[in-house]
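Q: what does this look like with phosphoric acid mono(formamide)ester bound?
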Amino acid sequence: MKNFLSVDDLEIETVANLITQAIKFKEGSELPKFCGTVVNMFFENSTRTKHSFEMAEHKLGLHTMNFDVSTSSVNKGESLYDSVLTMQALGADVAVIRHGDNDFYETLKPLNISIVNAGSGCGSHPSQSLLDMMTIVDEFKTIVGLKVVIVGDIRHSRVAMSNMKLLKRMGAQVYFSGPEKFFDESYLDFGEYIELDDALKIADVVMLLRIQLERHEDVMKITQETYHKLYGLTEKRYESLLDHAIILHPAPVNRDVEISGCLVESKQSRIVDQMTNGVYMRMAILEKIMEEKK
Ligand code: CP
């Protein structure tokens, strides 16, 4: 694996191996140590992805460089290609990049430096998708046959785009719920739309999404309070979940909008586990890339 760009590029066997390896890391297996440099280039804000990649790099013995967009020559008109080419020329082995363009990585493929997509516009977020799969496998030992409902701002969510594709390929039964304006007929290739209160009664996994106001072209016509009442996981709706069901959310969470604030760390929530699992999954991804570079 030279690059890690999209779930579409990954064989299911590769996904399964990455999940197994990430779980082994979590269970305390001996850590490989690599000589090499990873540059983290975040053109959009991030808390979890950026810092979990940094932690993963640290645990694998890799040297980390953080490219500071705000003080870089990007402000003098330097293109993404030229910034990454420069990092390659300086000796970086891997560039972990978050960028607002859905396909930012297409122009970077000819470079020798390995590219890891850490979130591309509304397009894809493959490392989040893999850590979500890991969290599900950690809980249920399988994904096959599980009913997974994706709720909320699906239209603007790169996490939803990656997850609907990968979940279907891995044998889950996918449902969509939340405001119909965030649903698109193209999602029917992956699953069906279902009313939220019906979905919560049958779901093994409830995958909530943040409303991505920064990507909306129109102003939301309903208040956050109304959204919570109509489409949020309220304390009352939580009571209707199956006992074994788990709640996922890629975070950051808008507390009391898509989920009641008091449910973020509730018994059936795995939201904090997802953050922890992100470190181990990103270690597995970086290990696979560095192994092939040897
Ligand atoms: N889930 C996620 O991508 O979070 P950050 O935007 O904080 O990295």
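The two ends are 12 Å apart (CA to CA). The pocket of phosphoric acid mono(formamide)ester is lined by residues 46-49, 119, 128, 250-252 (CB under 6 Å).
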